[in-house]
Specification:
Largest sheet: none
Protein name: Spore coat protein
Number of helices: 2
Helix content: over 70%
Organism: Mesobacillus foraminis
Distance between the termini: 6 Å
Strand content: under 5%
Order of helices and strands: HH
Radius of gyration: 16 Å
Structural class: mainly alpha
Shape: elongated
Length: 68
């Protein structure tokens, strides 16, 4: 079985990465501007989980294994 992604799958992951990066940038920026502590905590959690999700998505594009 091939371990490579098809072109449409790669493009879908790129689209998800673009969206997640935009969300991460917005949450990080708004976290600095927020004055409410509860909102700051929510945005900080979103930054942490967003970063984790981006790293996981990047593995699909960068992790290439030989097919057998």
């Amino acid at each position: 079985m091939t371990k490579y992604l098809g072109l449409h799958e790669t493009l879908d992951i790129h689209e998800l990465l673009t969206f997640k990066n935009l969300c991460l940038t917005k949450a990080a920026t708004m976290g600095v501007l927020a004055t409410d502590e509860q909102l700051k905590n929510i945005l900080a959690d979103d930054v942490k989980t967003g970063t984790k999700h981006i790293l996981e998505l990047k593995q699909f594009i960068t992790k290439r294994e030989d097919h057998q």
